[in-house]
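Next comes a single protein record:
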Amino acid sequence: MTVTLIPIKSIVYGKTLPYKRLPGPIFDPYGGIVYITFMGDYTFVCYAHENTRFAVKLARALESHGVTVWLDQWQAVDNTAWDQRMKHALLGCSHFLLVLSPEAFDSWLVRDQTLQAIRHDKAIIPVMLQSTPLPTNLSDRRFVDFSKGLFQQNVANVVTEFYTITHPLKPSFTPTTLKPLTINLRSWLWSGMVLIGLLVVGALIFYRRSPAQPEIVAIPSQVETLPITDPVYIPTVDAVQVINPQPTPVKTFQRSKDGRTMIFIPAGDFLMGSDSIDPKAGDDEKPQHLVYLDNFWIDAVETTNRAYQQCVDAGGCTIPQIHNGIFADDNLPIVGINWNQAAAYCAWTDARLPTEAEWEKAARGVDARIYPWGNEFDGSVLNYCDTQCVADWRDFNGDDGYRYTAPVGSYVAGASPYGVLDMSGNVWEWTADWYAEDTYAHSDYRNPTGPEAGVQKVIRGGSWLYPQKSLRVARRHKDVTTSAYDNIGFRCALSGTNAVAAEVQGRGIGSGPMQVK
């Protein structure tokens, strides 16, 4: 049998998926030749979920031309591993095919993946599904316009323009050359069986003469058995303060300018990040480390459309960049707001955006819990990508009652240990910090504020469009400050000393059951 190695940027017959063990050899239609494909030799397809049908059709057409394609639609991956699998597939690809459309321009996921592809010098293939201007960072790239001409001709243009195809050689042997080989194989098999039989007999004689001594195993006298269900995470830092998981009463403060309710977060230590043995944790969530924060206040819920409109009317804010009626109700969280607009609103209210550390402490308390309400996922206490969601990775086992965003404060049972609501799901939230993958390796112990500079700002909390893994409170995401999408919002924070000054002025700090306004 002849083995042919296919060089990079070549084709294979048969479908191979990157980062998976191949189930067996891949045979060419000519018969008899095994093809081995390098795992980096594939094309990653990036698209908005509204363009799924076109992406699948294009992927199949490219495969018919011999291009190996990685498409999330073809990956049998559970929801919790989906985004990590996407990241690995993107970083390992040789080509990055970008489906351009108005929906793609509004997709945060498409933008994030495109930035990653540019940063890692991938061979980018822009294809135009609908007439739209090229992104500024791709303005010098050639592209294939599928909004014009015949589909199959455009596919051929993609292959011609962006791929170098190496066709496999047709086998030179004929079927008649296999007969002597078959006869020789039979004789080899008989000889091999005789040899194996002799080895077995010899082994039996040896073990009868030299019986093995019993192995002495020391068993600890005191062992507590644990049921093997979910992984058990043990904090790596000692002496962490303990608080009531649901402190009562909640200490609240009402801002005078917009009437928003803020919740008091007491000073002290908490565990930030994820344990090294947590299989769902991203690399940028590690190492888990102890952080001390001074007293601060944070909004009880996400900023609403009604509250943001007050700032617009007062001349302190600019209008949102998304004007879609399904996100416009007064009590829905404001979306379509970039980082600068969010920061401007908080400044207008004499507050600020929370630091990444403040956000995480308000969301999880001090016991390193995975979700605001505890360590087990519960799809009934938050708004996430469930069975009503428009995305292909939706969870068909959950139904939170909303297709898109939900009114703020809808899920009281999903409150954090301090009573803060909507910290998991509904919309991602801007924070004050610049993003760096290795932030935690260099983090300050006391009141960390992240890197001094960067390209993207940290966003936290997951959203209505994202699966379970992105809803963990330690999950870190990021985007450039000019991005504004229909699943990113924000809330404000206030340093403890500023709230004390407000109390002196009689603005109203009190204790008791929280009233969300």
